[in-house]
Design brief:
Layout: H1 3-8, E1 16-17, E2 20-21, E3 23-24, H2 35-48, H3 58-77, E4 86-89, H4 92-107, E5 113-116, H5 126-135, E6 138-141, H6 152-158, E7 163-169, H7 181-190, E8 194-198, H8 210-213, E9 217-221, E10 232-236, H9 238-243, E11 254-257, E12 262-264, H10 278-294, H11 296-315, E13 320-323, E14 334-339, H12 344-353, E15 356-357, E16 359-361, H13 366-372, E17 377-381, H14 388-408
Parallel strand pairs: 3-15, 5-6, 5-7, 7-8, 8-9
Antiparallel strand pairs: 1-2, 4-10, 9-10, 11-12, 13-14, 14-17, 16-17
This protein binds ligand 7TS.
């Protein structure tokens, strides 16, 4: 499929917003959904809506097959060893909380160390703060380099004999930095600790192979990868998941229940209490099929080109500060920036009036904003459906906004 054909797969993009064709540059917050995903959700509700793992009736069997089939697709997508290692959750936030709750709170004790970085999304920060408070473990940070990357020497120096878990984002949702997870995992394992990876911003955009990375846990949100909201994945190595005790109890996750005690189902179902997110999982399966049809390598290349094209133009605009690494190979498909004297919310509002959707604010990364010494930033984020024309429209709109502020406010 060429870019025009890809874009046509996303019905929402074919509309005008505030009198202008929509330019959607906020895929890091949530991506748009292709017809294939919308149709898969529609078909489930129209043709075989039923609960899973329960009855023997035809619709129930069909729904169960589709739900478990989606798990198989996720397994292959991230190259896990087995479907037992794929747990469906509500999303990245829920997956990281599950690790914090069922692994860290169970197995860490006073004086143990949890290691994260200042570039984490709040979802990969607050669960560890809370786990540290509950267990008496110490929360520590790997320092960031001046360009917003992570230096392996700093990782090596931050890990101590007391480090039990390192949790780190694969791609920063603000800086765009792609972190060297494979190399970090090696260092972590040399010290007998485990590594948890926040893949919310990587799995949609580049090939993630959990065996190659050798990560112990990995969290994903479907809605950022062309799938529906409300569903995500926690990948975990079997040996760790088996040790962990579930934290949501109820239907679906049990084996036997007696008046005073119960036993749990085997993996992955012991972590999926209650009626699961059936339609969501089926939608995620359809999203994976769609992304694989296009090819993750193609998506990565497309975004790299767009980011380079955008960086070249934006750097030529006077008074723009761009955050994150300079090297394109260290960067994913987003650009975070500020324009002199214009608050990012004002800029986003002006751009919205031209039909251009970007995100403004702290991006759920308040400690990182402090590190950058700003209160907020603007962010344009790209996905497989964005074009060079989108970039041109963005840059022109920024230039006009800048001119407007210079002419009307600061003279
Ligand atoms: N981790 C990272 C790196 C993220 O970018 C996000 C969401 C999350 C975790 C949380 O994902 P959720 O699906 O559980 O909400 N990031 C953003 C963003 O950058 N703008 O809006 C949401």
């Amino acid at each position: 499929m060429n870019i025009k054909e890809i874009k046509e797969q996303f019905p929402i993009l074919n509309q005008h917003v505030n009198g202008h064709p929509l330019v959607y540059l906020d895929s890091s917050a949530t991506s748009q959904k292709p017809k294939a995903v919308i149709d898969a959700l529609d078909s489930y509700y129209k043709n075989y809506n039923s609960n899973v793992h329960r009855g023997v009736h035809t619709l129930g069997t069909k729904a169960t097959d589709a739900y478990e089939g989606a798990r198989e697709k996720v397994k292959n997508f991230i190259n896990a060893k087995e479907t037992a290692e794929i747990i469906f959750t509500k999303g990245t936030t829920a997956s990281l909380n599950l690790v914090a709750q069922c692994y860290v709170r169970e197995f860490l004790k006073e004086g143990d160390e949890i290691l994260i970085t200042p570039m984490e999304h709040h979802s990969n920060l607050i669960p560890w703060q809370q786990a540290a408070k509950k267990t008496g473990a110490i929360l520590k940070y790997i320092p960031l380099s001046i360009d917003g990357t992570i230096n392996l020497n700093d990782v090596a120096e931050s890990i101590t004999a007391n480090t039990k878990i390192v949790s780190i984002t694969h791609v920063s949702n603000v800086l765009g930095t792609i972190n060297p997870i494979k190399e970090i995992a090696k260092l972590v394992h040399e010290h007998g600790a485990v590594i948890c990876v926040d893949a919310a911003q990587s799995a949609p955009h580049l090939k993630v192979d959990v065996q190659d990375l050798d990560c112990d846990f990995l969290a994903i949100s479907a809605h950022k990868m062309a799938g529906p909201t409300g569903i995500g994945v926690l990948y975990g190595k079997r040996k760790l998941l088996e040790k962990m005790i579930p934290y949501e109890y109820g239907g679906e996750m049990i084996d036997f229940v007696d008046l005073y005690d119960s036993t749990w189902k085997e993996l992955p179902w012991k972590f999926e209490g209650g009626t699961p997110i059936i339609a969501g999982a089926i939608g995620l399966g359809a999203a994976i099929e769609f992304l694989e049809q296009i090819g993750l390598d193609h998506i990565r290349l497309h975004e790299e080109k767009l980011v380079n094209f955008a960086l070249e133009q934006l750097l030529a605009v006077d008074g723009i500060s761009i955050y994150g690494p300079d090297q394109p190979e260290q960067r994913s498909g987003l650009i975070t920036f500020n324009v002199n004297n214009i608050h990012s919310h004002d800029l986003a509002t002006i751009l919205d009036s031209k039909g251009i959707a970007i995100r403004a604010g702290h991006h759920c990364c308040q400690p990182l904003m402090k590190w950058l010494n700003v209160s907020a930033t603007a962010r344009a984020s790209f996905y497989l459906y964005n074009t060079e024309e989108d970039v041109d429209l963005l840059v022109n709109a920024i230039k006009k906004a800048k001119q407007y502020f210079e002419d009307t406010i600061f003279i």
